[in-house]
Amino acid sequence: MISPNKMLALKAPYILLTILGIQIVYMFHSTPLQQQCICVEQAKTNTKFSKIIRFERTEPKNLTTTQQPSLENLEICQRPAEILNALEILDSRNESREAIFFIESSNKGTITARQVCAVESTARYNPEADVYVLLLDPPEDPDLAIDEQVLTLLRYHKNVRLLRVESANYYNGTPLQEWSLANRINTSYNRVEDASDMLRIVTLLKYGGKYLDLDFVIQQSLDSMPPNFLSFELGSDVCNGVLGFQKGHPMLQMMVQEQADTYDGTIWGYNGPTMISRVMGRFCGISQAEIFETGKKCVDVVVFKQDKFFPISYPGWERYFDEAAGPEVMDLAKGYLGVHMYNYLSHGSKVPLGSNQAYSLLAQKHCPRAYWSCSENF
């Protein structure tokens, strides 16, 4: 008869093999998220390739917990945001899906929380559309790729894509090809604005869709908008901060040709809003003022008054930051598809978290992740 000790000695190799097998099975069946987090914990300094994202609400002063949205805390591992080549993605995109474009033209490859808000609110209310953020000639490793707010945005809105626009070849085959190759943008006194003005028109000409400035808060789906539209911003002044056109539309062709023929980098807006005004007169066959007064269409282009995106015109932009006016402005903004915040005027105005400023209230409601990921000010 074999003694217990001898029996245990005979079984020991099998026990060890069994334990090893269990460990191997567990290792291969653990979730990718668990594996990534272990790797990140072992190499926290290598944030270029991995990053722990912590999305935690910071309770603002004078705001009770019950007033804050029910957003879960996130602690996830994620690689840097993927920034793909714009031409490769857009040339092969599914054209049956709506396209909505934003542009970051500073070449820095970063966007602010307020700009993330514009993208988040748009993606929330337009889940069936492809939402593209075009980064014009960003750095090789932009900070945007590891930005916590951007990564959270991408995690929760799968319809958002970050695309790298290389100006050296993006304008090829358009009237702006020579303008681009000659680097005429470098002669501009308003380089960031002019670069965006040119890029948005060429993008809509090539691919069609809608364009929005990065200082909007979108409140509703944009599905109700016609395929070709413009908007007045103040009286009969047309804007280029929000517009939509079908691919190859003849009015867009005239706009791009006008930009190529008359480019002037010394006058703010000359290649943007005032360019559209010049083209409207020729394309529409009636004056801009007549369109504003009568509501007539410009051929097949609908030109809206301020009733879609501009509850307040730019001379009154400070009302968005006036806490006493918050409830009144919120009532005024009801029913609008979006609200324009005039960042070129308002970028220095603070928005404390939890305040009753209209911008604060709009952001809490329509882009809560961008808003509550801030520490003290939005």
What features would you describe in this structure?
The protein is α/β, with parallel strands linked by helices and 378 residues long. It has one domain: Spore Coat Polysaccharide Biosynthesis Protein SpsA, Chain A (Alpha-Beta Complex). It contains 15 helices and twelve strands. The longest helix is centred in the first third of the chain and has 26 residues. About 15% of the residues have low confidence.
Physical arrangement of strands within the biggest beta sheet: 3-6-5-4-7-10-9-11
Radius of gyration: 26 Å
> Helix tally?
15
In the predicted model, the low-confidence regions spanning at least 5 consecutive residues are: 22-77
> What is the global morphology?
globular
CATH topology: Spore Coat Polysaccharide Biosynthesis Protein SpsA, Chain A
Please report the distance between the alpha carbons of the first and last residues: 79 Å
Task: Give me the secondary-structure category.
Answer: alpha/beta
- At CATH level 2, the architecture is Alpha-Beta Complex
Residue share in helix: 25-40%
Strand content: 15-25%
What's the total number of strands? 12
Helix and strand element order: HHEEEHEHEHEHHHEEEEHHHEHEHHH
Biggest β-sheet description: 8 strands, mixed
Count of the separate structural domains: 1
Mean pLDDT: 84
Which CATH first-tier class would you pick?
Alpha Beta
What's the short version?
The chain has helices at 4-29, 32-42, 86-90, 113-125, 148-156, 167-170, 177-181, 191-207, 250-262, 273-284, 288-294, 326-333, 343-346, 358-366, 368-372; strands spanning 51-55, 74-78, 83-85, 99-104, 130-136, 160-165, 209-212, 216-218, 229-234, 237-245, 302-304, 338-340. It is an alpha/beta fold.
